[in-house]
Amino acid sequence: MSQISVQGLSKSFVKNSELINAVENVNFEVEDGEFVCLLGPSGCGKTTILRIIAGLEKPTTGKVLLDKKEINKAGADRGLVFQDFALFPWRTVSKNIEFPLELKKIPKKDREEISKKYIDLFGLEGFENAYPSELSGGMKQRVALARALAAKPKVLLMDEPFGSLDAQTRNNMQKELQNIWIKEKKTVLFVTHSVDEAVYLADRIILLSARPAKVRKIYEVTCTRPRIRTSPECSAIRATILSEMESIK
User: Fold this and answer.
1) Fewer CB within 10 Å, N side or C side of the chain?
2) Which of 3.40.50.300, 3.30.70.380, 3.40.50.10330, 3.20.20.140 is the CATH number of 2-77+154-247?
3) Extents of the domains making up the chain
4) Could you report the per-residue pLDDT of 144-177, keeping only the tens digit for each?
C-alpha cells in the first residue's frame, strides 16, 4: 500500500522580483516500509519536495497524501532529520532524544526507557549526559536519528543528513542507517545528490531533472542487503544512473 502519494506537485515562488519554478508536476509513490531516495543535482528542488511532504511548505498546485489523507501542515507522524543536526545545545543526549516524547506527554519513566533503547541502538552508551558541543559530527547525527525514531513517526524524512560529514564517517553512518532500517523497516524518504549513497541505501531511486524538478527516471535497486558497495549488482546500477545524470542539463 502506498504510504506517501505525491500527485501533480508543483511549486513556484518569487525571489528578487523573479518567478522561480522549483518543482513541476512531480508524481511518485512511497510504499509502506520502503526506503526511497530522491536523487538529483544540487539546487534542483529535492529539498523543496521534502519540505512540502513534511508540511513545512505549501505546494503551488498538486497535493501529497499520507495514508490517503492530504498533508497540509507539519505533524508528529513525520520524523525529520536535517544536515545540520538541529539538536538543542542546552539539552544532553538523553534529553534531546526525549524531547518529542515530552511533547506527546509520555510519562517520565517511559521516556527514559525509550531514550535508553535508542541510545543503545545507536551506540551512544556513555554519552547520555554529554551536550552536543562535546560530540563529533557523526555522534550528533546519531542523536538526531535516535530522536527522530524515538518518536515513532509513520515515515522518516531525511534531507542530506550525512552531507556535512567526512567521507569515512559518512560511509559508517550509511552502514548504521541501513542496519537500523533492516531492523525497524521504517518508511524512509531520503534526499541526496550522491549516486553512491542512493544505491547503497535505497529500494528505489527517483532521479529528478535539473530545476524545475521533474521525475526523470525511477530505478529499482535489487542488490542484496546488507549492501556491499563494490558488488557487481551495485556497480552496474551505479554506472547506469551516472550515465543518465551526465545528460542532465
Assistant:
1) C
2) 3.40.50.300
3) 2-77+154-247, 90-152
4) 999 999 999 999 999 999 988 889 988 998 999 9
pTM summary value? 0.93
Virtual CA dihedral for 143, 138, 50, 121, nearest 10 degrees? -40
Q: Are β-strands 35-39 and 204-208 bridged in parallel, bridged antiparallel, or unpaired? A: parallel
Q: How many beta carbons lie within 10 A of that of residue 153, not counting itself?
A: 18
What are the residues whose beta carbons fall under 8 Å from the beta carbon of 219, sequence distance 6 or more? 204, 205, 207, 237, 240, 241
Segment 196-237, tens digit of pLDDT: 999 999 999 999 999 999 999 999 999 999 999 999 999 999
